[in-house]
Predict the 3D structure of the following.
Amino acid sequence: MTTKQLTCKNLQEYLKTLNRNTLERLFNSPAACLAVFRELPALSQHFVNRMLFVGPAVSQVLVASWIPSPEPGGNNKSVAELHKVASQVLTEMHIWKEVTDRRGNPAYILNATFAEKLKIALMGGGKPWCMSGQLSEDPHPRSPAYLDQYASERWESVLQFLVQPQDGHKAISNDAIRTLLHAKLVEHETAHRMQITSTGFQFLLLDRSSQVWYFILKYLETVSERGLSLVSCLQFLFKLSFATHGKDYSMEGMDEELQTFLQHLREFGFVFLRKRSSGRFYPTRLVLNITSGEKKSQLMEVVSGNLVLETNFRIYAYNPSQLQVALLAIFSDIECRFPNLLVSTISRQSVRKALLKGIVAEQIINYLRMHAHKQMRKFNPVVPKTLADQIQLWELERERLEYTEGVLYKDFILQQDYALLANFAKSRGVLVYADSKSRTLVVSKKGHTAVKNFWKEAQTK
């Protein structure tokens, strides 16, 4: 049985799913325009930069001339493919559109709203677009180290709920549980009991930046049901992505809707808010640069490696949290546990157990690499090659067999009846398996109806 793999859209793929009207309203925010611009392919950025200060439409022939020439002996086909992709991205995201110029030739023109707001983000002018507001000195300041610990504890409580949903319902808010249910990371086993799904197991072994981005996307799918505006939430997230870690920001001017959204972000560990009446909040590292290609390096700082890996497939985890113990138990066998040390072993059976839950070998290896102790990081590769190769080989074992749905025919009284039906199924290309000794055959589910009708007609003759 094949398991559906968890896929996480990047910013481009997500924005392409939004309709033109939503994107047009989103582009009213300079922060949103700058975030979108930073995630464009390099050639798309080049096109936008050259058209940003050009008023009328630009001929498509002229745009094509801006593409860098291939190096001597280079591939012209790859250059044409880059041009096609860059143009397609800008069109699908409604950043430019195809028009005709004064001479009737095909041309491109930038989205006026996007161009105007991007200029403000790049050059300044207009109303301040980043979160500012004059604030007096915070009587209860929070250091970057405190914010990292706070964010880590909050986020780990969400992950702990995934591992043990029956025990962790008091540790996280109903809004977080609602998002996890919508994302199908957990499901109701009974009316009062939940269990983790195959997708949830895969989610647990993602790196933290991917977990956060996937969770936010699923939350955004539910904002309309919560009575919030998708555009307002997205614009605020884009502003947060440009915030400074350890700096407090004012809540002045926030309407009730944004304050509700801020409370949700607080519950997930994305911002620190001491109390609503304080009038200030601190973005945590989880949400900084969340829309940027640099987000992975930013969030990796939160993870402190504590795993030592040996070539005999043993794992030593120093001072593991309850969450990490539960995660290691997914793909390894816990051998012994001390107050500050856990020892486990990766075996064929433990890896197969993880594979059955939808986890893939690469996710296990990435998890081990990401959480490796700093002494392990001195080696190249970080995960011993014998261990990584063996995990991948155990995964390949499951791919040696191909599963095909079919219908079993057996208990033929006469050999000629068996041969008649087997030959018919073979001639139709629907025969999956046949054994003349036991007079047993299997036909594909698709060909079952035709074989059954043929057998009925043969019986009447």
Q: What stands out?
A: Residues 293-302 have pLDDT under 50 and may be disordered. The two ends are 40 Å apart (CA to CA). Residues 307-398 form one domain.
